[in-house]
Amino acid sequence: MGQLESAERSYNKALTLNPNFPEAHNNLGNTLMERGQIDNAISSYQRALVINPNYIEAHSNLGNIFLENNELDNAVKSFQRALEIDPQNPALYNNLGNSYKKLGRNQDALNSYSKGLSYNPESTDLLNNLGVTLNDLGQFKEAIKSYKRAIEIKLDYAEAYNNLGVSYNKLGQSDEAVQSYKKALDIDPEYFDAYNNLGVVQKKLGQIDDSIVSYKKALEIKPDADFLLGDILNAKMNMCQWENLQVLIDDLKARLANNEKVISPFSLLSLIDNPHLQRKASEIFASYYYPKDDSLGELDSYSRHPKIRIGYFSADFRMHPVATLTAELYELHDREEFEIHAFSFGPDTNDEMNLRIKAGVDHFHDVREMSHKDLAILSRSLEIDIAVDLGGFTGSSRPKVFAMRAAPLQVNYLVFPGTMCANYIEYIIADRILIPKNKQKHYSEKIVYMPNSYQVNIRNLNISDKVLSRDNLGLKTNNFVFCCFNNAYKITPKVFSSWMRILHKVEDSQLWLLTNNDVTLNNLKKAAVSQGINENRLVFAPYVTISKHLNRIKHADLFLDTRPYNAHTTSSDALRMGIPVLTCIGQSFPSRVAASILNSVNLPELITDTQEEYESLAIELATNPIKLKNIKDKLINNLSTAPLFDTPLFTRNLELAYKTMYEKHHSGMKPEHIFVD
Asked: In angstroms, what CA-CA distances link 113 with 106, 109, 120, 164?
C-alpha cells in the first residue's frame, strides 16, 4: 500500500508540472484502480483520452475497469474505440468478446473471439473463451475442438481441461468428462469448478460416494458457492445418508427465505413439502441461470394456421418413462386440427419407443447438434404455436430455448412437478388435486386443470413374458411383500421410519426396494437394524428394462409411496399390474401426484392425510386379506374403465386445453386458468 501511495504522489507531481501528460493520467488511473478508487481511476483514464483520443492503452484500461464493474455497455464502447485505432489487436477482441459474453450477446462474443483468432490463432485465451461461447450456444463438438486446440498449445491449461469436461458432459460422454476434470485438478488441486463439475458427473454415473467427496472438497474451497449445498444434499439423499439431514434442511430453508442461491428446484422437491419455498427456489434458479433472453426479438403470434402446431420438446423420446407415458398421445392427436412436432435433443437410440414416436408424430426433428439459439430459431421458422416443455428444470432439459421464446405460447408439462417461475412459461398442466385453488399463488404459470389426472398413459405396454416366481426375485413365497420402486433420493428418514414401524407390526413381512449401488443398499440396511428390523427383511431389486420391471412388480402385495416426492410413473406402473398404491397426500405438487393418479383410477380410499393413517392402513391391508383382495378386485375392474388409462379421453381433453389457450391468445386475451370439463 505504501508503494501505491508513493506512486500516486509521483504521478500527481508529474501532472502538476505537466497537466497534459496522457501517460501520467493513464498510470495514475492504474494506481487508483489498484487502490480500489474506481471512480477516480475512470476519471484519470478519461482525462488521458481528452488529451489523446487515440491512446489505445487508456481505452483498453477504461474498458477493463468497466468490464470488471459490470458497466458492460461502456466496456463495449471502450474496446470498440480501441479497435478502431488498432483493428488487428487480438487482446482487444478477446476483451470485447468477454463484454459481449457478460451481456448475454453470445453471437457477438463468438464473432469477436473468432476475429481475434484470425490475427493470433495461437491465443489460448481466445480459444478457451471461444469454446465457452460455443458450449453456451449448444455447439458442444465445436467447443471441444476449441478447447483441445488451446490445450495443445498450453499443456497445463487447467481451465480449458475443466471446460472440456463440461462439453463432454453435455454430449453425454461422462467418462471423458471425468478424465478432463481430473486432469484439471492434477494441474490445479484447488480448482473449485473442476471439483464441483466432477461431483455432478460422478453422481450421474451412480458414483454417489465419490460425488459427495468431490462436492465437499469444492465446498472447502468455496464455502459460499451457489447451489452447492443443494447438490450435496441431493447426493446424500441418493445414498440415503441421513446424518444431520434435518439440520442441513433447516439451514437450507433459512437461506432460501433469504433469497440465497442455495439449491436447484429439482433437488429441493424430495426435501421439503412447502410450495412457497419451492416457488422461491425456482424463482432464484430461473433468474440466475435462465432469465428471459430477447436476443431473437419479441414473438407475439403468427397468423392463424389451418391446424394448431404443437411442439413437444424432450431429451426422452426413447425407451424412457417419459416416452412410455406419452407415446400414444402423439399418435392420437386429431390430425384434422393439430400438426404435431417432436424436437429431440436426447440420444437417437432407434429403440422400440424411439421408432414408435418417430412414426407417431408429423415431424420428428433431431436437434441434438443444434445450439439453443438455433433450436429456438427453428421452432420460430416452423411457426410452432404451442411449445410444450417436457423437461422443466431436470438434468437433460433446455430451458434456454424457451427463454428465447420458441413459440408464442409455452407450457410446462409432466416431467418437472412444480412451477418454473419463468416469465416466458404461460401454462402448467395439472388437475384439481395437484393444485387446489388455495395453492395457485405458488405458481407463476396459469394452471390448466385437467378433469381427471394430469398424467397421460399408454394403454398397452410390452410386458416381459418371462415366468418369474418370488423365489427368483429373492422374496419369500408366503410372506407379505411391501414394495417401493421409487428412486432412493425420494426416501426420507421419516418415511423409512414409518416403513420400519409397519414391518414391526406385520410379522415376517418384507420390504422390496430399488437400488443401483451398494452404498445406498448398506445405508438402508444399517438404518433398518438401528430401528430393530433384521436387514434380511429388506430385499433389493436392480434397475431393469420397463418390460421386465412391469413383469416383476406384480409379485408385490402393496406399494408404499414416499413423501414429499411421490411415485409418478411408478404409481401408474404398479396400478397397471394390479398392485394397490398407498399414499399420504402432502401440500406441494410432487407430494400430491399419487393422490391424483389414485383418484383417476377410482381408488380414493388409498389416499391418507397423515403419516399415522398411512401406517394404520398399510398394517390393516397387510393383515386383512379380504380387505386387500376387495381393493385389488376393484382396481382390476377399474383398469379398463377408469380415466387413468383412457388415452383417447385424455388426448381429447388436452386438445381442448390447447384450443382454449390458442383462442384466448389470438383474441388478445392474457393467459388465465383453464378448466377442462
From this structure: 10, 6, 10, 17
Amino acid (1-letter code) at residue 165? G
433, 545: one domain: no
Name the residue among 660, 653, 673, 663 with its Cα closest to residue 446.
673
Q: How far apart are CA 328 and CA 326, in angstroms?
A: 6
C-alpha pair distances (Å), 271 with each of 255, 268, 321: 14, 5, 23
In degrees to the nearest 10, what's the CA dihedral of 458, 597, 500, 546? 10
Question: pTM for the full model?
Answer: 0.84
Q: Please give the pLDDT value at position 8.
A: 59
Report d(CA 531, CA 514) in Å as an integer: 20
Residue-number span of the structural domain to which 345 is assigned: 308-450
My answer on whether 637 and 500 are in the same domain is yes
Q: Is the C-alpha dihedral spanning 72, 74, 77, 82 positive or negative?
A: negative
- 419 with 504, same domain: the answer is no
Please report, to the nearest 10 degrees, the dihedral formed by the alpha carbons of residues 431, 435, 436, 439 taken in order: -160
Number of domains into which the chain is organized: 2
Q: In what order do the strands lie in the sheet with 607-608?
A: 538-541, 510-514, 481-484, 558-560, 581-584, 607-608
Say yes or no: 490 and 616 in one domain: yes
d(CA 192, CA 181): 11
Whole-angstrom Cα distance, residue 571 to residue 594?
A: 6
Virtual CA dihedral for 227, 229, 230, 235, nearest 10 degrees? 130
Question: What grid cell was written down for 509?
Answer: 413381512
Q: Which amino acid is at 616?
A: S
> Are 508 and 576 in a shared domain?
yes
C-alpha grid cell, residue 155: 499443456
Whole-angstrom Cα distance, residue 588 to residue 496? 20
Q: Are residues 367 and 427 in the same domain?
A: yes
369 and 312 in a common domain: yes
Q: Residue 673: inside a domain, yes or no?
A: no
Over residues 17-28, the pLDDT tens digits come to 667 777 777 777
Q: Is 538 helix (H, G, I), strand (E, B) or coil?
A: strand
Model confidence at 1: pLDDT above 60: no
Q: Distance (Å, rounded) from C-alpha 62 to C-alpha 82? A: 10
CA 493 to chain centre: 25
Rounded average pLDDT over 494-504: 98
Q: Are 376 and 431 within one domain? A: yes
The 3-state DSSP composition of the chain as helix, strand, coil percent (nearest 5) reads: 55, 10, 35
For the stretch 646-660, pLDDT in tens is 999 999 999 999 999
86: number of Cβ within 10 Å: 13
Do 282 and 292 touch, CB atoms closer than 8 A?
no
41 vs 3, 45, 57, 66, 241, CA distance in Å? 17, 6, 14, 11, 52
CA distances from 163 to 167, 169, 181 (A): 7, 10, 8
